[in-house]
Amino acid sequence: LKTLQECGLISPVVGRDGTSRFELEHDRPHHDHLICVACGHIQEVRWPTLEKIQDQACRKAGFVPKWHRHEVFGRCRDCAKKQP
Q1: Rounded to whole angstroms, how far apart are CA atoms 30 and 21?
Q2: Which is the most buried residue in 7, 22, 62, 72, by most CB within 10 A?
C-alpha cells in the first residue's frame, strides 16, 4: 500500500474510528472529504477555490507539492438534524 500511495495511485481516508480506507486515484479528479464523527459517513467534495488558494500559497513559498489531503471532521446533515 505504501508504494501505491507514493506513486499517487491510492490515497488514504481516515474514518472516525481511526482506521484507514484507500481510494484509487488513477484518472480521478482531485477531491477532499467531509467526515461525520457521529455516523462515519464520508462525503467527497471538490473545492476549486480552495485548490487555487493552496496552489498560490505553494508558489509564493517556492514549494513544489507532491500531493495533499484535506479532511473536515464534523456532523453530516442527517446527524446534525438529530443532535444540533
Answers
A1: 17
A2: 22
- As a 3-state breakdown, the chain gives helix, strand, coil percent values, each rounded to 5, of 30, 25, 45
CATH of residue 44:
3.30.1490.190
Which residue range(s) make up the domain with 30?
2-82
d(CA 64, CA 10): 20
33 near 27, Cβ under 8 Å? no
Q: Is the pTM of this model over 0.90?
A: no
CB distance 58 to 65 below 8 Å: yes
- Beta-strand relationship, 42-45 and 32-36: antiparallel
Residues 49-68 have pLDDT tens digits of 988 999 999 999 999 988 77
Instruction: Kindly state the DSSP code that residue 37 receives in the 8-state scheme.
Output: T
